[in-house]
Amino acid sequence: MNGQDNTVWVFQGASALHPSAAFTTLELAERWIAEKKVSGLLTAYPLDISIYEWAIQKSHFSPDQAYQRESEFIQKFSSAYLEHYHYECGVKSSE
């Protein structure tokens, strides 16, 4: 995933329970982050597919336990394989 047509960039501030911004491009997101000097996580999410299904399609995850096919698991599923960047006071971290 690289933030192109079928992706939205979502920013979640440090310690926030919910996202605070969404952008169509990485460039727009990074401009806002730098301007506002915010800290948090910027993640590229694919559109029109769940992260669960995306991870399976990309072979990043394979549900091998029965509970991993249940609603409760799927609704909480996320993946570190999503393209993402950390920011501190508006500056991208080197991690």
What do you see in this structure?
The chain has about 100 residues and is an alpha+beta fold. It has one domain (about 5-90). About 25% of the residues lie in helices and about 25% in strands. The chain is built from three helices and five strands. Strands 2-1-3-4-5 form a five-stranded antiparallel beta sheet, covered by helices on one side. Strand 1 and strand 2 (about 20-25) form a beta hairpin. The protein starts with 6 loop residues before the first strand and ends with a strand. The mean pLDDT is about 95.
Quick tags:
25% helix; 5-stranded antiparallel sheet; 95 residues; 3 helices; alpha+beta
Question: What is the average per-residue confidence, as pLDDT, rounded to a whole number?
Answer: 94
Order of helices and strands: EEHEHHEE
Separation of the first and last Cα atoms: 19 Å
Q: Profile the largest sheet.
A: 5 strands, antiparallel
Cα gyration radius (Å): 15 Å
- Report the count of strand segments: 5
What's the helix and strand layout?
Blueprint: E1 7-13, E2 21-23, H1 26-36, E3 40-46, H2 51-57, H3 71-76, E4 84-88, E5 91-92
Brief sketch in words of this structure:
It contains three helices and five strands, in the order ββαβααββ. The chain is an alpha+beta fold and 95 residues long. The protein has one domain.
